[in-house]
Amino acid sequence: MEVREKPAIKNRPDEWMIEQGMAGHKLPILNQTGKETVPLYPPQPDKIVQDKEAIRAVGNRKKLFAREREGWVGYVEWENYPEKKAKAHKILTSQTFPPCPDYQWGPIPGTNPVLPGDDFKAWHTAIGGELTTVADDSWKTVLKEKHPEMLHLLQFPYNGEPPKRLTTSKVITPNSLHFVRNHGGIPLIDKDKFELKLDGLVKNPKKYTLDDLMDESKFPRMEKTITMQCSGTRRIEQISLYAGQGDEVPQAPWAEGAIGTARYVGISLKKVIKDCGGLINGAKHLELYGVETYVKDLDVGNYVVSVPWSKVKANEVILAWEMNGEPLPKIHGYPLRVVVMGYIGARSVKWLYRIKAIENPSVAPVQAREYLYFNQQVGKYNLRPIDGIQIQEMPVSSAIMSPWSKQTIFHNGKIHCKGWAYSGGGRWPERVELSADGGFNWYAVPEEQLSKKGKWTWRTWEIDLPCDVEGWIEIVCRCWDNSLNTQPLNVRAAWNWGLHVTSSAHRIRVYSVNKTRELTKKRIAAFEKSGIPLAPLTRYDAVPGGLTDQELDEYWKAYPRDVDE
Ligand SMILES: Nc1nc2c(c(=O)[nH]1)N[C@H]1C(S)=C(S)[C@@H](COP(=O)(O)O)O[C@H]1N2
Ligand SMILES: [Mo]
After folding, report:
1. Tens digits of per-residue pLDDT, 237-256?
2. Which parts of the sequence belong to the Oxidoreductase molybdopterin-binding domain (predicted)?
3. H or E segment at 290?
């Protein structure tokens, strides 16, 4: 065949996919602010650059970023040393790193870990010193402490949730199955070398060993069953609808498992503040410091958030060292963590080493620049951190853990469903309702099919949901809490750029096959008789047992297709 000239076309092989909105990250922005529409293309993969001279000028990283305390592996102190922070920042900004693959437009990799977290790994090794081995150590701890069936959404910083069938199989989540949400490494702290510092606007700043805190003559024990929920729970539903803020760590693509319930033992933070002589000079917030290093916008710090004194005063903030009858697992904050009842998980600081009394909420990035609930019209090109509500109490929410979306269900008129319901701020699920018709008619879960009520805990539930329908249905779940708050009915109603707090009614689409119907029963029997597999729904098979030509002919005789006049 004659070889022709290469045709002058601009299509790329993935043109159709791109045109159909399946690869949004490859699309140019259309700039229509001038006379002509101008496409603004995404950059070609950037060349990795490194200003070696600038990095060398920062100094000896091993010395600069050394372990702060003996017996505290992975601990670099940043908050006390602004010059050190500046040096780490200099290192991170004197080079570029390979961009992380886009995961919001999919397909999300079919691997476990789902995402590797290459940027955070690279930042840690670039800073070096004590942080050099943090990513490897973290993964080793995951493999030691977590259940082999955990779904590792992000390898480093480690973010993982249990699979659906294990999320609600017990009312108290076994430690190995409790979800984990980290912003950095997992420090390995020797409890005999441990010390908690209390300073800032308290009358008598003090330091405590673990034994001091465990001294029952000073601090009465508290034991509480508490559900912890990440504000990222069910984020995947928001992502699937519209892409939002894109970095991997703040934005792990959680499903319904970023919630867990445990029995914690510890003491009330209020008593410790009192032991320091109480707050002074208008202190109204307590800043809580976690040991590990967190990189935010190439700035380096420790994990810091704050809680208001009013919450502490109500004895709703625990310093805990025991989780479900065991010392805290390393991955959950050993030896000491905060547990804030009814607030988003982010305030429950793990590897706690310092509490500082301050006047206003912390300006540290996790408190002031993340976990913000923006208005829908706030996004990448206009946002300011003050445009978001700082998320504290979680709203009422719920989820269906079984069946799964897109599943086909053979049933006899009732579909068995299971799930959880939770409300923050000390409210609790009072009623859970399911709909098999997209949210028009609702059935309440019978009280005896809901787990026990608790002020700070979720309730798990099961229901046989009546369903007469054949074909695709949408099962919806919503909860009413004891204040009669309920959930918005669709994701869009509460969609936000930060992709937080997906608290809308949980919807799944399943294909209902109702075997109480004679026709269905017969046809399935025909599949079985001929040994034709029933799954998957979309597989085409030549199934015998339809009408014969003669039967068709007789039918059209009795019920003519057309009218004569
Ligand atoms: N030091 C520290 N504390 C932390 C975090 C963290 O990354 N570092 N993550 C927070 C977030 S966002 C959540 S949801 C909870 C999760 O607690 P878990 O990992 O024990 O389930 O811990 C919080 N405490
Ligand atoms: Mo979280």
Report:
1. 999 999 999 876 767 999 99
2. 183-362
3. strand 285-296
- Ligand 1 center from residue 49 Cα (angstroms): 33
Give the residue, by CA position, lying nearest to ligand 1 atom 20.
332
Joined tokens for residue 51: 């200003």
- Using only C-alpha atoms, the chain has a radius of gyration, in whole angstroms, of 28
What is the rounded distance in angstroms from the CA atom of residue 204 to the CA atom of residue 278? 8
> Phi then psi for 240, rounded to 5 degrees?
-65, -25
Is the distance from CB of 160 to CB of 180 less than 8 angstroms?
A: yes
Closest CA to 517 of 468, 473, 464: 468
- If one residue of 138, 182, 188, 326 were mutated to test the ligand 1 pocket, choosing by the most ligand atoms within 8 A of its CB, it would be 182
Q: What is the pLDDT of residue 424?
A: 98
Instruction: Count CB-CB contacts under 10 A for residue 82.
Output: 9
Which 8-state DSSP code applies to residue 68?
S
Two tokens at 127?
A: 């800073």
Segments in 243-347 forming alpha helices (H): 269-275, 309-313
Amino acid making up residue 108: I
Q: Residue 488: its pLDDT value, please?
A: 98
Domains of the chain: 52-390 (3.90.420.10), 397-514 (2.60.40.650), 518-558 (no CATH)
Question: pLDDT at position 103, please?
Answer: 87
Distance 107 CA to ligand 1 centre (A): 27
**386 and 310 Cβ atoms separated by less than 8 Å:** no
pTM of the model: 0.96
pLDDT of residue 4: 63
- Supply the pLDDT for residue 1: 53
How far does the centroid of ligand 2 lie from the alpha carbon of residue 200, in Å?
26
Query: pLDDT of 152-190, one tens digit each?
Result: 999 999 999 999 999 999 999 999 999 999 999 999 999
Residue ranges in the chain whose pLDDT is less than 50: none
Token pair listed for 56 = 């060398």
Q: Burial of 330 by CB count in 10 Å (0-12 exposed, 13-18 middle, 19+ buried)? A: buried
User: Which residue CA neighbors atom 11 of ligand 1 most closely?
Assistant: 346
What is the whole-number distance in angstroms between the Cα of residue 296 and the centre of ligand 1? 16
Q: Which ligand is closest to the CA of 235, given by its number? A: 2
Pocket of ligand 1 from Cβ distances under 6 Å:
178-183, 228, 230, 290, 292, 303, 332, 345-346, 348-351
Neighbours of 414 (CB within 10 A): 15
How many A from CA of 231 to the centre of ligand 2? 5
For residue 170, the CA-to-ligand 1 centroid distance in Å is 22
Structure tokens at 320: 């805990």
Is the Cα torsion angle 269, 271, 277, 282 positive or negative in sign?
positive
The span from the CA of 315 to the CA of 313, in Å, is: 5
CA–CA separation, 263 and 174 (whole Å): 10
Alpha carbon nearest to ligand 1 atom 4, residue: 349
Give the H/E segment covering residue 121: helix 118-127
Token digits of residue 354 = 């310092």
Buried b (16+ CB within 10 A) or exposed e, 137-146: bbbebbeebb
